[in-house]
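Job type: complex structure
Entries:
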Amino acid sequence: MPSAATENKANVPKKGIFNNTTGFSTLITVTVLSLAWLAGFASRLFAVIRFESIIHEFDPWFNYRSTAYMVQHGFYNFLNWFDERAWYPLGRIVGGTVYPGLMITSGTIHWILHTLNIPIHIRDICVFLAPVFSGLTAIATYLLTSELWSRGAGLFAACFIAIIPGYSSRSVAGSYDNEGIAIFALQFTYYLWLKSIKSGSIFWSICTALSYFYMVSAWGGYVFIINLIPLHVFVLLIMGRFSQRLFVSYSVFYIVGLLLSMQIPFVGFQPIRTSEHMAASGVFALLMAIGALKYLHSLNPKGQWKQLLILGGLVAAVTVFLAVVLLTYMGIIAPWSGRFYSLWDTGYAKIHIPIIASVSEHQPTTWSSFFFDLHVLVCTFPVGLWYCIKNVNDERVFVALYALSAVYFAGVMVRLMLTLTPVVCVLAGIAFSILLDLVLREDETPAPTQESDDKNLYDKAGKLKKRTPEPVGETGLGMNVRSGTLIAFMILLMLFSVHCTWATSNAYSSPSIVLASYGNDGSRKILDDFREAYGWLSQNTAEDARVMSWWDYGYQIAGMGNRTTLVDNNTWNNSHIALVGKAMASNETAAYNIMTMLDVDYVLVIFGGAIGYSGDDINKFIWMVRIAEGEHPKDIHEADYFTERGEYRIDSEASKTMLNSLMYKLSYYRYDSGGSPPGFDRTRGALPGLRGFKLTYLEEAYTTEHWLVRIYRVKKPDEFNRPRLPLAKRTIQTSNVMSKKLAVDIGHMTSKRRKGALKNKPILVKGKKVTKLD
Amino acid sequence: MKYKSLLFFTLFLTYYDANAQNRGKGLEEKVRNLKDLTAKYSMISLNLNRFKEYVRSPPRDYSFVVMFTAMAPSRKCAICQHVYDEYTIVANSFRFSSAYSDKLFFGIVDFDEGSDIFQMLRLNTAPVIMHFPAKGKPKPADSMDFERAGIHAEAIAKWIQDRTDVQIRIFRPPNYSGVAAFLVLFIFIAIFFYVRRNNLEFLYNKQMWAIIAVFICFAMVSGQMWNQIRGPPFFHRTKNGPVYINGGSHGQFVLESYIVAMLNCAVVVGMILMIEAAGGVNGKDVRPQEGKRRRFYSVVGLVLVCVFFSLLLSVFRAKTQGYPYR
């Protein structure tokens, strides 16, 4: 098999214009990369242009809030920040439960710009951070691909990743999330790793470790790196590709990376205490053992050491494996956590962790979402993989492993499409580059013709003369085929870019806190209900008011409304969430008990029935029930919320438990909008089964313009079920003794009898009132 | 005389109609009989008489969970066997657990032995698991809904706990089949390597590894993992003939994913053909007499890529409403 060296020899003279002058090729590289950056940046701005410069969705609001806190109070205060506004009454130690890389990145940019006297608001930095980093990702991908194959392939890969929907889905302007910067760190770490394994220099290895440190500080997906690189080393060992370069680069990377990663407070001692990181240390031990054996071998190269080497390697591998298993059994190493375990055993999460299963991005991936996110690359990247394996070397082993593991993870979870996208771009770039390189190359004139001349010398002279006029057309593909291929592939790439722009614009550029609806005439209507409600909360409620809502809206309430929440998107405490779910799923009285227990002042529900918004709380309700049932199986039964035929309905056929649940009542209380007949629920397409009811323990505090957000105030114990006495009667009170007697007797007067009826209620106000009168 | 009358009474009890029989027997005796029956097998197989006696007639303080099934091979009930296995696990777990009491019994009715029971309860499907509470008549929720809960033993136990407040901890007989299969495979591979220990060249065959890798990619990209987890039907039969492509973008059929894998594969083959025809990665020596053949292959590759990619696009368009942009 020809190695890379011969390939280079073959390629160098044929590259034509690109390699003639370094200056020219550098110019092309720089131009293409900056254009890719620009295109990537521009295609991520749809949300800003359509709506405004605003933070999107849920998690970004928390990131924004903590970034703002860090910019205001300084880094060390941020690390020690105890957030009492979240998880009431538990609170949250933010500094120790967050990956700070994102905040530090934007905080640093903010600091630099302000040092240069450029006054820019931190929000704008947060909004535009991800699009800017997409350009850096393109450059990192270019570097990675040119290490793997050639610079032309690198340029293709950079252009692909700049606009591909699988990546822009997480990095549009306003989507201020860890993934936005983490993909850059991922690609850059891989590039440096390949560089270090190629050169075997400590410098590049330490660079890899530093880049890995940045990745650890930015995203929990760093586990992918710390498992993929050891896997690469392991496979290289199996393939018998051990070398000094490998030894130096991995041992330096592992030690420095380990020490650095433990500096992040949230990661702490995990790298030496959990199973997710054990592959790395096991491979490290194995590498040391094999290094030692190799050294022994080099002392006496003549002896029968080869078999000893193989045997020793196997023994070392088994020993390391057994040691890890034993330590896990002894409890020194924590076993795989549920989130990782669910990647292998795909049915695990659904049975044991409903809160993971309830998130839509943790579902497996259909082929159409692969196609939607990757388009033409989905059926061209195997070509790149094919040629990488056929012409294998140390680096290409890495990219093959990267592709195979990422494609598996992406199949299991939609969310991990994000880790697949970069490698697909790299491999598809290689495939396109190989093909177009061959097609665009000039038909070789001198070399082949001479060769054919030499061969033809043996033929008859007469034939030779006939052939010489058109040897070019015979040997090459011919002009027609070339141009046909070229046109077809240009069309493919055009389709790809149109698809990418369309997907980014239509599917991934919605801020989801500002909704847009389109009328029949194409006019656009902005529904700004979320901000209206959060604004109301921040202006009209007490500073320390506690707001209960489902966990999806926790970060937004804290970020925009600046009020205390009970649960939020950092779903670390399942039982607390289950308690909120139980309150939502119980009837009003039971819910009131839970709410007083949790000191709730306001309840916020999302109701989309009036405008046909499908992501509202009634549709999420069944997950609340499931999560609540997981913790309180005695009180909540999922089956009670379905009709007898097992349907999930809200109309008159709905089950009684459903109709009496707090969530149902809060959603449909006083609801009379939604077209004809009034009170029609557009999302479910049905008329609610229970209407015109009254609330006892809560009162409506605010409802937004399109009924999307409804806020209720929880009444204090002295506010409900009190008989309304006219003022005159309140003044004429019999003595205390008399009233007690009367309450026990069957009453004399109607007013007394009504008082007596109060006694059966769970919370008796009467006692209080009497003492007050005393 | 006394004995005679007793004998007569017993006969009377045995052969007279079931109602009278039940009235005669006391609760304690019934429970004792049931306990005897469960001593050997954790499940009691019921015929009409037993069913009427133990399950339907009034003096009871125990709940009865009964599975109605059709186990005979001629009935061709594939799911019955699965449900039967899981149900047996539940019954055994209960029988041999510390929570075992005489408040709950498990029964089974096979259609071929007790079709009159099926008629009596107006059942026309199998399998059905029903719960007969100690007091009152079974409510609709007392027959288990497999579609929602699933047929796992854990789900059955949870449902029983729901209905009767008896908590059953499922103890599955450990399943060694997975481990055994793995061991057999491992041994097989080891033997294979041992036999061919002098000829391990095939491991260095890059073509083979490349084909394996590419096929893993096709499988994953065409959503086989989704099929594995969600278990969709192979394809959909409607009145207007079979439907191979699921209309929504959130679902797919098994056959559909195979079609997509084939389309992907065709595009990849086309592209590799084109590259090889144009000289391959390593810039092979170009021989003049091959010119025609290479042009032919190149055109074939191009046609493959274009046709199958446009097919892929059209399948995708069929699934996604309003896809052709704008």
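Summary: Confidence is low (pLDDT under 50) at residues 16-24 of chain B. Residues 40 and 93 of chain B are 14 Å apart (CA to CA).
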